[in-house]
Write the structure tokens for this entry.
Amino acid sequence: MSTTEDWIDEIETQRRQKDRYFGEDPRSPIPDEERAAFDGLNYYSVDRTYRFEVELDVYDEPEPVVVGTSTDGEQEYFAWGEFTVEIDGQPVTITAYKGDPEEDRLWVPFRDETSGEETYGAGRYIDLEPAHHRTDEGRWILDFNAAYNPTCAYSDRYECPLPPTENWLDVAIEAGEKEFGH
């Protein structure tokens, strides 16, 4: 297991790499006309209290869920299980989804009390890959410091799935990526 310093360095390195990609890569979601003035995304400071090693309570029979999108479309996911953590003294339950039941990757979309104020109004995402987000004991690392905006936060040319209402959290998650200022 890495040290706290290693973990913070890893998050900060990922942020620098994303900023470089968004500012320089022709496939960046930042519109071409805005890219020259782009000087990086806004983030909350890395905060250990938003990083959890937690069991996933996998549903006995994961159900397909139709999720609305930012362009009034629909996409189907499977509600796979839920994590329960404590934030600011409150128990918080958040559902994890899979796009395909055969894949190992989990997707955790959410809105919280910062949505539309300090963070993107439609919500943010966390991706969990078993190779990087599972402990040797089989617990998941649910790290809100890695929360990011969907591509539709940067440009209307993207269609993004919206967090289902069960993941509209009644707490402020002051971690991860903040609102993108055009």
